[in-house]
Amino acid sequence: MVLLSPWTDTTLSGASIRTNAQRDALIPVKPMAEAARQICGALSPQDPRISPHFAAWPQTCPVLFQVGTTEVLLDDTLRLAEALWLAGAKVSVSQLDDAPHVLAFFAPWVPEALAAIAEIGGFIRGLSAPPPPFGS
């Protein structure tokens, strides 16, 4: 799994929602509560189908997270990464200094975005077992 700046908790309980509110240029905090209400509908914001932060994660595949250090979703990423790691998943987290939300989206215009894409490719290639030798 590759998760880029995921919003994992529609209760908005992550501290970075508040601490990075003035630093995140792409995600305005004010509309997030209304967006959460619309996403949840009749479901509780703690429903794991809406907020994976509250899910159980048995036998999870390897996961790469990428998130900017100034994003309001930083804690959503870090808390889910920790939950997956505690459940036994292989977890890699790239905290990208001062990167905007979903940095990889800005490729090919931003060199750091190209590096983020390269990291994703390397992660995915690393999951593939080499094919067995011919004739075996």
User: In the CATH hierarchy, what is the superfamily?
Assistant: Alpha/Beta hydrolase fold, catalytic domain
Order of helices and strands: EHHEHEH
Mean of pLDDT: 93
- Which stretches are poorly predicted, pLDDT < 50 over at least 5 residues? none
Strand proportion:
5-15%
Biggest sheet strand line-up: 1-2-3
CATH topology: the name is Rossmann fold
- Gross morphology: globular
Q: Sheet bearing the most strands, described?
A: 3 strands, parallel
C-alpha Rg (nearest Å):
17 Å
Question: How many structural domains are formed by the residues?
Answer: 1
Distance between the termini: 30 Å
Named at the architecture level, the CATH assignment is 3-Layer(aba) Sandwich
How many strands appear in the DSSP assignment? 3
Kindly name the structural category: alpha/beta
Work out the helicity level.
25-40%
- Count the helices. How many? 4
Structural account:
It is a single chain. The protein is of the alpha/beta class and 136 residues long. It has a single domain (2-127), classed as Alpha/Beta hydrolase fold, catalytic domain (Rossmann fold, 3-Layer(aba) Sandwich), CATH 3.40.50.1820. Helices cover 33% and strands 11% of the residues. Strands 1-2-3 form a three-stranded parallel sheet, sandwiched between helices. Helix 3 (74-86) links the parallel strand 2 and strand 3 (91-96). The longest helix has 17 residues, at 111-127. The protein starts with a strand and ends in a 9-residue tail after the last helix. The model has no long low-confidence stretch (mean pLDDT 93).
Brief overview, please?
This protein has a 3-stranded parallel sheet, sandwiched between helices. The chain contains 4 helices and 3 strands. The chain has one domain (2-127): Alpha/Beta hydrolase fold, catalytic domain (Rossmann fold, 3-Layer(aba) Sandwich), CATH 3.40.50.1820.
